[in-house]
Design brief:
single chain, 279 residues, alpha/beta, TIM Barrel, five-stranded parallel beta sheet, three-stranded parallel beta sheet, 13 helices
């Protein structure tokens, strides 16, 4: 079983945004079409043997790049493959809370993702705090980005220390999934995940061949329950992200936890997986 903890089914306005010019430059060897259909996304998942993907909405300061309803439409078309992850505007925190509540209770979403660099607001900014409280009440994880910013935006907001560390101290019940490994602050991210029971790391935006050595060591040992597989699709397809998985020398338990077991536990997908298997 493979669960992709960080992906998106992009809209044209998301894919074409100028801030992703750097990503398009990095991935020019594997060009992708301007329009990606749901069938293409599912085909890419099939190619990488991905059981289910947590596909996120994107809300930016100037509007929705991928709306919650657009994600919900894809999830409704492929209910056994796509799991919705909400986004929300930080401009009006109470409106954001109401939108998150709608996404979870009416659309069936399983998490919230806010990308700090998109807002140029660190995760300790007061505008996040009502959303953290609502995530706890809804019993869903908060997903965010750590490490340098690949898109053409500042990187400061991606520092694990102090930001993720301080949020985890103030909201110890909040399950935090920190995407993109945290490079070049990977050791900080590992330290924060080790320190806090409910802080986790996902490997999105990196292929297995690019995992830092300290992360691989962590996955093999006491961090085996702390790291989740992710792709950042469509930037990286699952099949490409997993090339060289055997070279990580993970034992069977660590491999199973990394590929899907940790995501099932953290996002509470047990019922989803059981229904999929029954179908």
């Amino acid at each position: 079983m493979i669960v992709d903890a960080w992906m998106q089914h992009p809209t044209e306005r998301h894919s074409a945004n100028e801030m992703f010019a750097s990503l398009r430059r990095w991935t020019r060897a594997t060009p992708r079409p301007a329009v990606i259909t749901p069938e293409m996304t599912i085909s890419a998942m099939d190619e990488g043997h991905v059981t289910a993907g947590l596909a996120a909405a994107w809300c930016a300061p100037d509007g929705w790049m991928i709306s919650n309803d657009e994600v919900a439409a894809v999830a409704a078309a492929y209910p056994d493959r796509i799991i919705g992850v909400a986004s929300a505007s930080l401009h009006k925190p109470m409106d954001a809370v109401r939108e998150l509540r709608r996404a979870v209770k009416q659309l069936g979403f399983r998490a919230l993702r806010v990308v700090p660099w998109l807002w140029n607001l660190s995760p300790t900014d007061r505008r996040y705090y009502p959303l953290y409280a609502e995530c706890i009440e809804l019993d869903i994880p908060f997903c965010t980005q750590v490490g340098h910013t690949g898109p053409l935006r500042p990187s400061e907001t991606g520092r694990p220390i102090p930001y993720i560390d301080e949020v985890a101290l103030e909201f110890p019940e909040l399950r935090i999934v920190a995407g993109h490994i945290g490079y070049p602050w990977t050791q900080e991210m590992i330290a924060v995940a080790t320190k806090h029971e409910n802080v986790f790391i996902d490997t999105s935006a990196y292929t297995t061949k690019r995992y830092p050595a300290e992360l691989v060591q962590y996955m093999r040992g006491h961090g085996r329950e702390k790291v989740l597989f992710g792709t950042n699709y469509p930037m990286i397809r699952a099949a490409k992200a997993l090339e060289g998985l055997g070279e990580l020398a993970l034992d069977d338990e660590a491999k199973a936890l990394f590929l899907g077991g940790n995501a099932v536990r953290v996002f509470k997908l047990e019922q989803f997986i059981a229904q999929r298997r029954a179908a």
